[in-house]
Amino acid sequence: MRTLLDLILPQDCAGCGRPGVGWCADCAEGLVRQPVRVWPRSDPGVPCWALGRYAGPRRRAVVAVKEHHRRELVAPLGRELARGLAALRTPGRPLVLVPAPVRRVAVRRRGGDPVGRVARVAASLLTDCQVAPMLLADRGVRDSVGLGPAQRRRNLAGRIIVSAGSLPTSLRHPDAEVVLVDDVLTTGATACESVRVLTGVGVPIRAVVVTSVA
């Protein structure tokens, strides 16, 4: 069936365009990186870590998952996130991943939340790790493409909310490490507002971990 589908709808590598494979070995090897500490222009008040630059095959993979429904790339991105989290977490402590908020219109257009999918793959590969999809972007949030740092902050101010009844029991564990995860860190505006909102409902964030930094 896979061969038949490839004949009808030929598939190219999302990272480099190599024909016949959705994600080639060379691009997969390029994702294997150690987390690097980064300092966005808008400081969320917690350490921020990136797994790589938003460029090359990494950028094309993120865009393919978000905008072109290339769900076969969720697994390699999830595996990379799991490796990064394993390097950063404190051994023996529970880990809770909170996906960054996404606009409802984007969820409908993309057929779901790509960041949430990647986080669930990562959690499935780690011991004592859960995903808590708690954050929502209010209807007033518009697409941030083309907005500067101050405009991004104003766009999000007061418009990220915690969904009703979404606080999981795992967050009540006194030793739980809670990490905000996202695909791209640009100015840090989303991370800032998300951390502020979560802290306001009693959820302390240990760090922000992203697939890539712009």
UniProtKB/TrEMBL annotation:
Family: Belongs to the ComF/GntX family.
Species per Swiss-Prot/TrEMBL record: Nocardia aurantia
Protein name, per record: Phosphoribosyltransferase
Superkingdom: Bacteria
Taxon lineage: Bacteria, Bacillati, Actinomycetota, Actinomycetes, Mycobacteriales
